[in-house]
């Protein structure tokens, strides 16, 4: 298994962060592209309860990923394989008894800054920056260079964030795609598991 080390931050919008990355000497690695993601779990929810993720993704290619939480929210073991057919992979997972629990879209652009990767993520319910690197120290340096406060990083998954938002606002749709959620609702710190700025 590979080790994935990354931290996630909520930002009001992404253009300012993109400019900061470039001003700090970063460079774009990809253009902005739409991702389609599907998360699966066992019927009893044991994967999610155990800090595990089983996900299908389609962007420039299709991948199947399994992730497991380690000692902190920022460190996970990961296995990711390329697949040729998303629909066949979905049918296989369903045939094995897994259930589809969440579909979400996001636009992503990847930039490089020093020894880290900066992922600019635009979801139907908000904008986020994920920083991936060889260590938490390297990620912390990049976050500081971009003006991101380390103690304001988000440990919740996109599924957990959307569930909190959906419950607070009474949103009818269980999935978060741009088609189903054309207008981004207002996120609050409590949706992200963060204290309010005044606390």
Characterization of this structure:
- This protein is α+β, with helices and mostly antiparallel strands and about 200 residues long.
- It has one domain: Hypothetical Protein Pfu-838710-001, CATH 2.40.320.
- About 25% of the residues lie in helices and about 40% in strands.
- The protein has 5 helices and 9 strands.
- The chain has an 8-stranded antiparallel barrel with strand order 1-6-5-4-3-7-8-9.
- Strand 5 and strand 6 form a beta hairpin.
- The N and C termini lie far apart (about 40 Å).
- The mean pLDDT is about 95.
Explain briefly what this protein structure is:
The protein has helices spanning 15-23, 46-49, 86-95, 136-145, 158-169, and strands spanning 2-11, 27-28, 33-41, 52-58, 62-69, 75-83, 99-113, 116-123, 126-132. The chain is α+β, with helices and mostly antiparallel strands.
List descriptors.
199 residues, alpha+beta, Hypothetical Protein Pfu-838710-001, 5 helices, 9 strands, globular
Number of helices: 5
Low-confidence stretches: none
Number of domains: 1
Radius of gyration over all CA atoms, rounded:
17 Å
Write the layout of secondary structure elements.
Blueprint: E1 2-11, H1 15-23, E2 27-28, E3 33-41, H2 46-49, E4 52-58, E5 62-69, E6 75-83, H3 86-95, E7 99-113, E8 116-123, E9 126-132, H4 136-145, H5 158-169
Antiparallel strand pairs: 1-6, 1-9, 2-7, 3-4, 3-7, 4-5, 5-6, 7-8, 8-9
């Amino acid at each position: 298994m590979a080790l994935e080390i990354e931290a996630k931050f909520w930002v009001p919008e992404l253009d300012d962060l993109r400019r900061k990355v470039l001003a700090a000497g970063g460079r774009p690695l990809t253009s902005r592209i739409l991702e389609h993601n599907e998360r699966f779990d066992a019927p009893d929810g044991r994967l999610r309860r155990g800090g595990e993720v089983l996900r299908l993704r389609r962007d420039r290619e299709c991948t199947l990923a399994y992730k497991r939480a380690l000692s902190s929210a920022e460190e996970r073991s990961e296995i990711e394989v390329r697949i040729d057919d998303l629909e066949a992979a979905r049918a296989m997972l369903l045939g094995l008894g897994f259930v589809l629990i969440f579909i979400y879209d996001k636009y992503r652009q990847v930039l490089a800054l020093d020894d880290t990767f900066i992922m600019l993520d635009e979801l139907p319910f908000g904008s986020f920056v994920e920083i991936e690197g060889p260590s938490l120290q390297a990620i912390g340096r990049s976050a500081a260079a971009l003006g991101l406060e380390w103690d304001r990083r988000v440990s919740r998954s996109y599924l957990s964030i959307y569930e909190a938002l959906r419950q607070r606002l009474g949103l009818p749709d269980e999935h978060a795609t741009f088609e189903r959620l054309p207008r981004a609702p207002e996120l609050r710190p409590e949706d992200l598991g963060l204290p309010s700025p005044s606390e």
